[in-house]
Amino acid sequence: MGLVCVFVNQKGGVGKTTSAINIGAFMAEAGKKVLLVDFDAQANLSSGIGANPPKPGIYELLSEQATIEQVTRKTAVKNLEVIPTDHDLSGAAVELIDQKERHFFLKETLAPVKNKYDYIFIDCPPSLGQLTMNGLAAADSMLIPMQCEYFAMEGLTKLLETTGRVQKDLNPSLKISGIFFTMYDPRTRLANDVIKQVSAHYKGLVFNTIIPRNIRLSEAPSFEMPISLYDPQCPGARAYQALTQELLRRDNMGGKHGS
Ligand SMILES: Nc1ncnc2c1ncn2[C@@H]1O[C@H](COP(=O)(O)OP(=O)(O)O)[C@@H](O)[C@H]1O
Ligand SMILES: [Mg+2]
Question: Is the CB of residue 239 below 6 angstroms from any atom belonging to ligand 1?
């Protein structure tokens, strides 16, 4: 059974999309079959992985204008596929979701292909709105990227409160796979303080691997490549590879999400 993981954080610019693409690519390189789902109308994942044109995509799938086979594309990485999106998603999906079983729309849409993949990664928008709720209702587990900054802790508290409500009302088997730090700059004392504080407070949830700030990671999407193809030896690539291995080890150690 494939695991559905959402990359979630209501804050924008914390590394959700970058992490979904790059962990997805390293998982695929490790022999896992992975589907990326772009569930953010900003469509950064779609353009970053080179899904051009982005239509038909997740909106056409949700609105039954296209089948899942028609919207699923191959990428430059073997075993890595993507369902793209475009800017229509935000308004359109809210209408759609309002019409039907609101929160379970994405879950039902992905159910037929869940067994075709080892991992399905959903890249959520920077909010706790309707789309993210659909992501959380569909997911077995959550991956939370965090920037090492002052307000990160507050944001995390709110996110975990929402998670509690989702677990109670929508998805009792939702697990928190873990929190990881991104865009780390070792020169700032604040970054180190935040990491210490969050790690102490959420023992066991924080991944050991920290993703450094690395310009190569921000360049790769403009070449429509994950970092594993763009610059596999750069520090950002090595960090995402290590994080992927850590995640795979956690999943193999009986900490399997959603079971
Ligand atoms: N580790 C990193 N080092 C440098 N730039 C990064 C890193 N991670 C992400 N970025 C850049 O920061 C911006 C925000 O990242 P993104 O993954 O789009 O965040 P989100 O999806 O949470 O909004 C993007 O321009 C991205 O290329
Ligand atoms: Mg994003």
Answer: no
